[in-house]
């Protein structure tokens, strides 16, 4: 689900022109207005420096998300919000980097990735603080830190358990709807297996190139690799019935990505989008009938949300129309609301936005009624 800003700088003028042409074709094919899909839109976060990736527990009483808050740590930490009383608590250790939280559907557990066990975690925090104080400008980019492991903790953040404990980037994890499985992304084989000369050179140039989708039992056992490419496969989420996984696959040059789905054993891999742009961050609607995702088809820095049917047989439909970044969408478990990350703020920092979702209009626009 990461490195969208890094990818911005890699997209050249020809891709931009291609995007404008594709956008024109979309506008002529589909006349649905973005305002038809999301109403009562509001910003959920504002006190934090930046916020992103909010996910709900099945009963809609809790929401986990990542935020940059504390001055002593310039990196994201994981927070849990009680949606009944509005109280927020930090559940990650507070040291190092964190990302990709998820709330267990049945138990009081939070899933996230962290580098807090990195011996140099505090030194890296200090270095980043000093860099910012110096005024050095740097585009936001994900670094695929090899010390990222996947952890679970209780709702107090007091019982933290390492589920992967393997050198390499282990992140982007989510529990299955029954809480028995975890899908995640990892480049661990670059650290644990003998690579070919071609793969070793590719990994040295781009650590994300060997990231694949994996699945494991909820206790970290029985790890299986599901994708077999030398491009970045990441951001896996389970379908509402737990039978399939949706994810995004980057192209070899890292400039484009498309949405894919597969069975949870890795079989029947299907390409859902064919936009030839940067399409990523897919998420199923609870109905299981369509997928929402983000794409920059309207300009390399203008990411918008689209929906597409689960078989990829219909033309994707645009559901946001604000300049800037709109991505990382997630439906509430009842399917009635949408929460996503956007930089449509005066500071141009990522924050959470929320709105009422028109499911019937979505079905109609995709001819799924």
UniProtKB/TrEMBL annotation:
Keywords: Signal. The keyword Signal applies. Residues 1-34 form the signal peptide. Pfam families: PD40. Belongs to the TolB family. This is WD40-like Beta Propeller Repeat. It comes from Nitrosomonas communis.
């Amino acid at each position: 689900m990461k490195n969208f800003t890094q990818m911005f700088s890699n997209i050249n003028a020809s891709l931009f022109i291609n995007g404008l042409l594709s956008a024109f074709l979309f506008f002529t094919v589909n006349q649905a207005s973005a305002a038809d899909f999301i109403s009562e839109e509001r910003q959920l976060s504002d006190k934090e420096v930046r916020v992103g990736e909010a996910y709900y527990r099945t009963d809609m009483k809790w929401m986990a998300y990542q935020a940059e808050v504390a001055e002593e740590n310039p990196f994201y930490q994981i927070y849990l919000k009680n949606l009944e009383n509005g109280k927020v608590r930090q559940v990650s250790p507070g040291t190092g980097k964190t990302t990709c939280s998820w709330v267990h559907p049945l138990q009081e557990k939070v899933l996230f990735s962290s580098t807090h066990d990195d011996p140099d975690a505090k030194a890296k925090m200090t270095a980043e603080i000093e860099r910012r104080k110096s005024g050095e400008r740097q585009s936001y980019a994900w670094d695929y830190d090899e010390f990222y492991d996947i952890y679970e903790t209780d709702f107090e953040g007091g019982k933290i358990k390492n589920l992967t404990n393997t050198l390499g980037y282990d992140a982007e994890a989510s529990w299955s709807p029954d809480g028995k499985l975890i899908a995640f992304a990892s480049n661990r084989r670059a650290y644990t297996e003998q690579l070919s000369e071609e793969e070793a050179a590719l990994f040295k140039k781009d650590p994300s190139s060997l990231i694949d989708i994996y699945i494991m039992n909820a206790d970290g056992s029985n790890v299986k690799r599901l994708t077999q490419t030398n491009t970045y496969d990441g951001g896996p989420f389970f379908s509402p019935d737990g039978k399939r996984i949706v994810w995004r696959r980057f192209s070899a040059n890292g400039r484009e990505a498309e949405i894919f789905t597969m069975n949870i054993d890795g079989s029947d891999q299907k390409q859902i989008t064919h936009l030839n742009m940067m399409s990523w961050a897919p998420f199923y609607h609870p109905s299981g009938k369509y997928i929402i995702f983000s794409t920059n088809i309207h300009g390399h820095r203008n990411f918008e949300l689209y929906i597409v049917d689960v078989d990829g047989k219909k033309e994707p439909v645009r559901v946001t129309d604000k300049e800037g970044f709109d991505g990382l969408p997630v439906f509430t478990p009842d399917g009635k609301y949408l929460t996503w990350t956007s930089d449509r703020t005066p500071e141009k920092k990522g924050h959470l936005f929320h709105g009422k979702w028109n499911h019937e209009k979505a079905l109609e626009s995709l001819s799924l009624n």
